[in-house]
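re: that complex we talked abt at group meeting.

here r the seqs, copy pasted straight from the sheet so there may be weird spacing, ignore it
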Amino acid sequence: MSNQIHIQNQEVEDNIISSSEIRENKNGDTDTNSLDCFLKSIRKLNPGEEEFYEAVKEVAESIWDYLDDHPEYQKSSILRRITEPERIIMFRVPWTDDNGEVQVNRGYRVEFNSAIGPYKGGLRFHPSVNLDIFKFLAFEQTFKNSLTTHPMGGAKGGSNFDVKGKSDMEIMRFCQSFMTELYRHIGENTDIPAGDIGVGEREIGYMFGQYKRLTNEFSGSITGKGLLWGGSKLRAEATGFGLIYFVYEMLKTKQTDLKGKRVAISGSGNVAQFAAQKAIELGAKVITLSDSAGAIYDKDGINYEKLEYVKYLKNEERGRIREYAEKYDVEYLEGEKPWNIECDIALPCATQNEINGDDAQSLIDNGCICVAEGANKPSVSDAVQKFQENGILFGPGKAANAGGVAVSGFEMCQNGMRIQWPIEKVDFMLQQVMEEIHEKCVEWGTVNGSVNYVRGANIAGFQKVADAMLQQGVV
Ligand code: GLU
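got the structure back, here u go
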């Protein structure tokens, strides 16, 4: 048995492990072979972790030529090191439900990379999560955070806890139990969690309360806090608003803007709600929203009043988007996503893998000109390839949705200074960050006159982390 394990480990080791070795060993071989070899080793080291593999593959493919011109990265095995999480924490989360029964969930925190700052990234509570998903999200977060220009490393965590159908007290007990383990691993200079799917201001409140109680310290160790207790103005709006600021920049490269454009949005949570709000403000017509049960298609466009109802429905009532269709007498597409509806701009704001190759084709056939990801990796690689081959403006999540974590960075600054900035200041700074991210994508992603935002975001995000790693030695 132990021999077998030894053999397996040996195989894994034999199969690369440093990108410099590959290049030296394969002297004369094409880059594709070396890249294949590297990716094979990632598969072996992370068996069954499809999401993580796909995320690594996309980055490795984007930066491979760039690495050719940088032997210093190869020499220090930067690619190999940057694809290995610095630390993974997994723990039991026991709690008692309203019937007095003991429930057990699993908690995770993947601290991926701290080369440019303390670990930073959200917590997701959703039954679908597992280690693979958290590794993929934390890996993506590392590059996203690097793009924001703030000194923040990458992390992600959460639990397979399902907030749906739980009472407020059950959620509080769960959050307290989760934090009772997590608190020892985080801190304002170590790791600063925030929200993500299933974790909003309510959950952050319960976790922060428990953190404060356990540490006897009121510090900025979590972001996305309430405005009365250390939160930043505009943090709630930041991901959605930032997404639209990014879309605005993308459209500018084609001498157009959002006025009169039909926008299909998926999801109806925090990101979708504020992306819709800003899109409406800039003159667009938002025609769809969705949830896990289906999508609504409002031909006349969702106005501010209807959007207020969506916020009430989703944030207070915790109801289904179908109720919107009933209230406003619009089409409800049961069990469907909104990608078969004619639109000019598509904003996937629900979750990963929600646009497949067929969905992408249908968006292209229906004349869509721009796709920007409010969620993390909602488009599978086939879809991305289709968008790029068809000249669609495609903004990957790590660039387009970086506004949320950027304002988390501002929240950390305000906490450090014990002040709260006015909303106008935060909004202005958020716009600046999104413009800068766009500029970096253009700088590094322009190929034959058109911008490959995936390449641009990956190279620009990688560069800063890789240089910091080089300067800090082999750690
Ligand atoms: N969960 C968000 C993201 O995917 C925000 C993370 C944060 O604010 O730390 O970027």
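couple things i noticed - The pocket of glutamic acid is lined by residues 120-122, 144, 194, 196, 223, 376, 404-405, 408 (CB under 6 Å). The chain has three domains: 2-80, 87-219, 238-391.
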